[in-house]
User: Fold these one by one.
Assistant:
Number 1:
Amino acid sequence: MYDFDGNDVASTIYYGLFALQHRGQESCGIAVSDTMGPKGKVASYKDMGLLNEAFTPETLEKLKGDIGVGHVRYSTAGSSTRENAQPLVLNYVKGTLGLAHNGNLINAPELRRELEYTGAIFQTTIDSEVIAYHIARERLNSKTVEEAVGRAMDKIKGAYSLIVMSPRKLIGARDPFGFRPLCIGKRDNAYILASESCALDTIGASFVRDVEPGEIVIISPEKGLESDKSHCIKKEEHARCVFEYIYFARPDSYIDNVSVYNSRILAGKFLAMDSPVDADLVVGVPESGNCAAMGYSLQSGIPYGTAFVKNTYVGRTFIKPKQKTRESSVQVKLNAIREVVRDKRIIIIDDSIVRGTTSDRIVRMLREAGAKEVHMRVSSPPFLWPCYFGTDVPAKEQLIAHNRSIEEISGLIGTDSLGYLKIERLSQIVDGLEICTGCFTGRYPIEPPEEDIRGEFEK
Ligand code: AMP
């Protein structure tokens, strides 16, 4: 956020990040600078955990400045440690850069080696530092910071939505494929960049527009909002992550003018059309399965119900890095309401099955609560391939759909029947937008790297 009236931005950034907490729960941070003050003086605070665990009113109070950047982290490259928390703050001859990155680079290991051979010393193991380094280095030979961002974009490959804070400008950039979202908002005399529009609603800002795939936007008090489209590619080549609509994003967000809520309702409707089953009640696995369950109910006429109580004090279980932690988390997070499911034939909808841990527990919970039949419908196709572009997907061998038929999976998770969304439906749920379906089809918009980039830096 950049407030041209000179007001402090840290607390607004905090609430904006709070609305984006679902995107990452491992660590968080805010870095701010005073554009009227000494060039390059940045105050920042980062820590592990959720925002309300990491920040206190006192820590926020100390962050004085009218320009700032914040981040909540979900790791795809680099381990979950305090050093790897973002935003990254980098001091160099031209001042200070603050950087927040969402996505995953596919050529980070090469770029990192190249930089290391020329003397670079890295402080973190995340690919985002490679981006920061490139921008800082290019800045020495560029007239402006946006030019340096553009030159860095010529080198980095993969998925990135970036926010760069320079001493006097705020820059947003989205990779040419548009894998990850990024949008622009405005409140009074301040501009905001955020991953999802729900963050703008939360802080009372109005939605201006999405940053286009490949676009660099430059925010400064002299010129307001400027745009550089020299990195944009043809619309047909765009490859937005469809999993944002299926799972990641909040349903009250719009990404590239498509409502996340609508796409989930549609997925549920298509499931009801393509994979019908006779039952008494449709229920969702909270939260991400709820919209699709509603869609299924609307289309099939089978009543929609609430079968689970979710303990809202726990985060998304998947994000806990260890399998053992995840298993026990399902019970901590959800409990079935016996009164609702007893003696009923239930259709349970979830957004995805990855390892199958969640489904297995949930199906068991429903049976223990007295369900007569449990039919599972999944509002995405079977998860079969790795993601190189910012979604954390376990190794192939751990994916329950790997080398298994739908009947076999159904047997493993203990359902009476199982149905997935058809691949052909994916572009229909996002109003025909160009999407990446790599995790379901193995077809990627960019050739995936030969070396396994997952955890590369830890080896
Ligand atoms: P699993 O228990 O491994 O089958 O995980 C499936 C559950 O985790 C689903 O209910 C999703 O809501 C959620 N999920 C799926 N993919 C991801 C991901 N890449 N990151 C975080 N959560 C996910």
Number 2:
Amino acid sequence: MNLILLGAPGAGKGTQAEVICSALKIPAISTGNILREAVKNETKCGLEAKSYMESGQLVPDEVVIGILKDRIAQDDCKNGFILDGFPRTVPQAEALDKMGVNIDKVVEIFVPDETIKKRLSGRRVCEKCGNSYHVDFKPTKVDSVCDACGGKTVIRKDDEPQTVSDRLKVYHEKTAPLKDYYEKQGKLVTVVGQEEVSETSKLTLAAIEA
Ligand code: ADP
Ligand code: ZN
């Protein structure tokens, strides 16, 4: 099964992607994580992507499309995959169609902008392994120390309040039109994000199995 998770930054796509990954045993692919890794390793893609990411803008289509194409060609994607954060523009969605990738379902996780602003201000990520936490909703056991690897947890540069507003603007302008795109293909299902992560997960899994 090939799935897409759609939703504003901070709607909880990443968390839901992990839940689906363990339930269906198909890999979750986050273009954001791949890009952050590339930035950290200072690869050619990473150097190109860095300034866009830090300012909350989208990385150019041809860069992300190339990354995604390489990733889904890997062996572990043979039985399907979950895309988290791709496509983010209509040209990216068209590129997937052109690659001949058949998408079964597109799950939109809907969360209002105001809620998102609150959530992202408390988000912390591990510098070392990239695990994600939240000061209120998913705190680390020891303050600022990653549960998984002991690395230091920090505020992501693009989670600064001004950048969050810019990311939301970009989402509404460039990514939200994908709802129409997939609605027309009869693939869109919307899940309303709940305060309790496990409640959202139940709704997400039900939407996929329906
Ligand atoms: P979030 O969904 O929390 O905004 P991601 O981790 O998915 O964050 O992405 C972080 C940043 O990486 C984005 O703001 C953007 O700059 C870049 N990025 C990730 N995926 C894409 C994509 N499909 N197209 C363009 N830019 C992307
Ligand atoms: Zn860590």
